[in-house]
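Q: What would this chain look like folded?
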Amino acid sequence: MGIITKCVQCEHCDEKYRLRFNIGNKYPQSATFPCHTCGEDLTFGMDEDESIFKNIKEVAFRMDLKIVNLHPELTLDAALKDDPLYFPSIDFMVRQQEQGEDGIFGFRSAQQSCILYQQKWDAIQTDFRYLREKRWKLLEDKYGTDQKETEHKILLAVFDAADHFLQGKWAEFSDNMLDIAGEAYNHLGYAGLRNYLLDFKEDFLMNKLYEVMKSYREVEDALLPTLLHQKCGFVPEGHSSAVNWEKLKMVYGDFFEIYGDLLLIPTSLNNLLTRNDFNKFNTDGFNLNKYIDADKSGKAENFKTNGNLVGLADFYDSGIRNGTHHQASTFDKDTQTITFRTGKGGRGRKDMSLVNYIEHCNELFARILAVLKSYYLINMMKPANPV
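A: My prediction, written as structure tokens:
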């Protein structure tokens, strides 16, 4: 929660700054801001025993240099980003204290869950990769020779890590998904649904789960500034101290593509529970094969009237996906505004803050984990009366 002050100089144009770096919860930690003169991305951070400098070098301390406030894990009030008396951590804690004991407990739990998610994923990632690649010999010393048991132990560890990410407000729709899966288990048509979904096991549980968690970890530092806000139930606002649009611009679209495929899971569950047939839609002649082939933009429409599933449709925006993946976006570093060209020929325009974009990435990632967790439960729950 403390602040480190460093005076630095841009290595490209020699502009000097006095950085006020608010210390986060885990290492390494860093923050990036554009040089006010030349626009170069400048990075300062900390590892456990040394400072991190990129495109800057430390210079002698001077009080009269331009102030830059940085926080690797919280957003900054845009109006106070150069205020020498601004303490974003204190502002955040005040908001939590206004919620009483639950607010303070929630903040501490959110902090711990961020750390544990990273640690637990890092601990199991290599084993998960070996499992995905079926390199059983490399897993035998730790897990034994029973391949089904090895798979079970590794996936349990992966979802244990996922549970730490989902801690906080996301636990609710994750629990709702598990409730829906449990309700489906008691339906007479569950065996047919499960048999159908198991055909996607290799793609969903091995490929998509691994790739999305690996991808998130690779850009995690750029997604952290809104994470505590979201876990504690706040809508993140202001500026990010992780200004790296080149690193982030494909993230949402990549998550959107994966999530669009995974929406087969809540859609088929909803079909079973509302129409007694996992393959039946409201539209005559429409079925899951046609659903799979349909445009991803409408794939959340099926379950929007289901109170336990409707939250899965939030933050699912094809316009953001199209604007980034079709190279139809620009980023203003000074205002941290993303502009998307939308519609046919890019005639439309949509502006979005970087913080709002990062929020969308975290929200979509959480939904991917929640849906895949319910899928794994279905994978484990054999029907009482198999067909």
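The chain has a mean pLDDT of 92.
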